[in-house]
Specification:
Elements: H1 2-31, E1 34-35, E2 43-48, E3 51-53, E4 56-59, E5 65-71, E6 84-88, E7 93-97, E8 101-107, E9 113-118, E10 132-137
């Protein structure tokens, strides 16, 4: 009889360990960053509920620039669902990046000058000074 109890404990322990491994593996898979992956970009720009980092970008006049737009925020924000945006209306740019993902975008070639960029999806929108920045084209 004791041998049967010991075998039942071993089986239960094995089932528990396997179930835990499956649950943790599924959780890790669901929480992984999604998007276009590492990708090669001229510049990285992170946008969170706290704003843009950096808030100033410099580009060369007449030359397009690629930017890796990084959004580490959770999809569970009540304000905008964690989606962020980089918009520069003067350049026809309005790109969104989903929560916990990255996206490679291209800022088109532009004439010298300063262009305001912003996120108008959440966090007070484009009027919030933290949700905007400046692209300086030289």
């Amino acid at each position: 009889p004791r041998r049967g109890c010991r075998a039942a404990v071993v089986v239960r322990l094995a089932v528990f360990v396997m179930t835990t491994a499956v649950v943790l593996g599924a959780a890790g898979w669901l929480m992984r960053p999604r998007g276009e992956g590492p990708g090669k970009a001229d510049r990285n720009v992170t946008v969170t509920m706290a704003g843009f980092e950096p808030m100033r970008i410099t580009a060369t006049a007449g030359k397009a620039m690629t930017v890796k737009l990084i959004n580490p925020d959770s999809p569970f924000h009540s304000d905008g669902g964690g989606v962020h945006q980089l918009a520069i209306p003067e350049l026809g740019l309005d790109e969104k990046v989903q929560p916990r993902s990255t996206r490679i975008i291209t800022i088109p070639a532009a004439a010298p000058g300063e262009y305001r960029y912003y996120c108008d999806v959440c966090c007070g929108g484009k009027e919030n000074p933290m949700m905007q920045g400046t692209l300086t084209v030289q």
